[in-house]
Design a protein that fits this description.
Blueprint: H1 2-13, H2 34-47, E1 49-53, H3 55-60, E2 68-76, E3 81-88, E4 96-106, E5 109-119, E6 125-132, E7 135-139, H4 143-163
Antiparallel strand pairs: 1-2, 2-3, 3-4, 4-5, 5-6, 6-7
Length: about 190
């Protein structure tokens, strides 16, 4: 089931017109959770499922013109929304696609509705992409969209931490001399 939804993401995003590639997209500044996003990337690369992004989509996202191999982690909410984190496994084409999409059915048509963000290994937002029944389009990276991107990054950071908790070493308990048979001094 996860595989079906992850393919829906890439199929839906493949509808982005190639003309959008020519747009000049200014990245957002680096975020404070940059190191944590790198840990999510490592987690997805080590435990994600192998998928690929279609050549058309890879080209639109500026990730080359061939099929782009990725590792993917996806989480489906109770309302059917699919949160996905895809990391390029091609060392020459760095890229992370984070998305929040819901698969919809309308009579005989299946499509996704939601948003996807293209970022890089530093967490810098490159593109915001809206997906709906009519296709997909690149949107300006407004402050509202940047805030949503930050929320989605935080979602994946929490998911990684929940599955790979780093437990700090606790100090050994202090034992008083009387507890181990020492003599208590009475004055």
């Amino acid at each position: 089931m996860k595989r079906h939804y992850s393919k829906s993401l890439f199929a839906a995003l493949a509808l982005i017109p190639a003309a959008l590639l020519a747009q000049n997209l200014a990245p957002t500044p680096h975020s404070a959770d940059q190191a944590e996003l790198s840990k999510v990337e490592e987690w997805v690369l080590s435990q994600g499922i192998a998928e690929s992004i279609a050549p058309e989509l890879a080209a639109i996202l500026g990730l080359g013109s061939d099929r782009l191999p990725v590792k993917l982690k996806a989480f489906r909410t109770s309302d059917g929304t699919n949160f996905a984190f895809a990391v390029s496994t091609n060392p020459k084409q760095e890229g992370i696609v984070i998305s929040v999409l819901k698969t919809m059915t309308d009579k005989t048509e299946i499509y996704s509705v939601g948003t996807a963000w293209l970022t890089d290994r530093s967490g810098t937002l490159r593109q915001t992409i809206a997906v709906d029944a009519s296709g997909a389009k690149v949107l300006p990276n407004s402050s509202r969209r940047k805030a949503k991107f930050k929320d989605i990054k935080a979602f994946f950071i929490k998911k990684r931490q929940a599955t790979n908790p780093t437990t700090p070493l606790s100090p050994s308990p202090r034992i008083s001399p009387t507890a181990v048979g020492g003599k208590k001094e009475i004055k």
